[in-house]
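ok new one. same drill as before - structure tokens go in, u give me an amino acid for every spot. 136 of them this time. try not to just spam alanines like last time pls lmao
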């Protein structure tokens, strides 16, 4: 599910989801900006909600723009979840989070069952916009 479309073709084509690789970790370190994390967990009771939120994300132009211009987006399936993130609750206490670039600790987490998928995505956008104002 990780996108293979070159970054130059965004934001019109969707979201550039990066996997957990050395290249991604280097990119996060260079960017020094918070990271949007999405954990795909088809065995979780919240999977139907996660799936619909994931489908909704590319439909939001503001989110696409923020992820294209400012924030890295990280997509990890639960069976590939690194221990560093598991120790911080990823995949257990949260599946969608905004992580600090310093240690990838969660700064904000989203409850995927709190509303319509578009509402959850809009809340993500609002958080990222507030962070943008404070981060720079």
């Amino acid at each position: 599910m990780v996108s293979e479309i070159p970054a130059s073709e965004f934001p019109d084509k969707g979201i550039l989801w990066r996997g957990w690789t050395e290249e991604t970790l280097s990119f996060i370190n260079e960017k020094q900006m918070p990271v949007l994390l999405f954990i795909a967990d088809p065995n979780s009771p919240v999977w139907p909600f996660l799936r619909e939120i994931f489908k909704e994300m590319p439909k939001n132009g503001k989110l696409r723009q923020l992820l294209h211009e400012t924030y890295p987006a990280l997509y990890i399936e639960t069976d590939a979840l690194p221990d560093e993130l598991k120790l911080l609750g990823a995949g257990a206490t949260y599946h969608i989070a905004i992580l600090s670039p310093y240690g990838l600790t969660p700064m904000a987490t989203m409850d995927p069952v709190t509303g319509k998928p578009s509402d959850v995505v809009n809340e993500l956008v609002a958080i990222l916009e507030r962070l943008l104002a404070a981060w720079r």
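The helical segments are 22-31, 47-56, 61-69, 83-86, 117-135. and btw Strands lie at 17-18, 35-40, 73-77, 96-99, 106-110.
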